[in-house]
Amino acid sequence: MMAMTISTDNQRFDDSPEASGEEHSWLQQQVQHLSVAVEHELRAAGPAGLSELELIRALQGERWSLIGTVDFHEPDRLYPVHFLLFHVLYRLRDQIAVEGESLNISPLRLSIGQIVNRSESTALPDSTDALREFYLDLSQYFLSEAAIREMMDNFWAGNTLSRPEHSEAAEAARTLGFDELPGQFATVKKRFRKLVMRAHPDRGGDTGEIQQLNQAFSVLKAHYA
């Protein structure tokens, strides 16, 4: 079966989460193709895993060609790619949990490992996980542009669906070049501004690098809130 490339064109978005049968069929095909590719890339990466940005770039490569050009400056165009990736990731986490494997899900680090407590391997991840519920609901793919921008505004403000775990905050700190979590958020802000200036395209950086710094900053902002 020939794979289709995920489009970042927002023409499918309207003011309601409803979608046609054709659109749902297209989504299911995308999920099938992505599921194979995502699991392959994460297992190939080993314990070190991949960031969301690294995974997107791998899926854009010649091996898969599943994702088109992504404009990291436009939330409504980045959102469909991000949402489908995380939909697939949460499905995969549920599937491998029954086999005794875990999947760490964070924009900064995605990695497959072994469940330490074997008694937990027979249970699915917490069904009350707000992020899991959001990403497993495919209708959320069809959010309006206004809803996406509101959600992103909340994200950058640190108003997330759940407080980041300590491991996620520590990973965010490492992304910003810290060996450990700083004692004050002011230290984070100072380092963030410095790194964003260095990562500016005019200085040899790229928008993907800036996006990763933004994600790390938002995680730490929620951690210190």
From TrEMBL:
Residues 171-225 form the J domain. Keywords: Chaperone. It comes from Marinobacter nauticus (Marinobacter hydrocarbonoclasticus). The keyword Nucleotide-binding does not apply. It comes from the Bacteria. This is Molecular chaperone DnaJ. The keyword Chaperone applies. Residues 1-10 have a biased composition (Polar residues). Residues 1-24 are annotated as: Disordered. Residues 11-24 have a biased composition (Basic and acidic residues).
